[in-house]
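Following up on my earlier thread - several people asked me to post the actual chain instead of describing it. Fair enough. Here it is, all 137 residues.
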Amino acid sequence: MAVTEQEFAEAEARMQAHREAGHAVSARYDRRASRVVVSLNTGVQLAVPVRLVEGLADASPEDLGEIEVSPAGLGLYWPKLDVDVYVPALLQGIFGSKRWMAQQLGAIGGRSRSPSKIAASQENGRKGGRPRKTANR
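Reply from S.P.:
Thanks for posting it. Predicted structure:
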């Protein structure tokens, strides 16, 4: 696929706009707090718990410690894990793909313990638990 000069110029303009909003100048793994600390060109530091970032939750501290910042400062890369993170997405609170984020939100919702959910669970327990799934043919 060939890229035209105009497409290339438009892509560079988009990148520059993202950089102006803040780009990484360095990143490190904080073992004590189990988080990634990203220093931005604006002087702001962003600390993100690794458990929140797709691909980092189960990684060893040694693997997490090796972080590369992209030349444009818009990406972080963990070579031993083959994980990329987009810095503008981190700033927006997006820590993974849409599918992965939806799974995380669903898991949180499933753990909620509202009074109505507790009552429904107790009622199901009195009836013998959740009904078994039946095969539809």
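Residues 54 and 105 are 13 Å apart (CA to CA). That should answer part of your original question.
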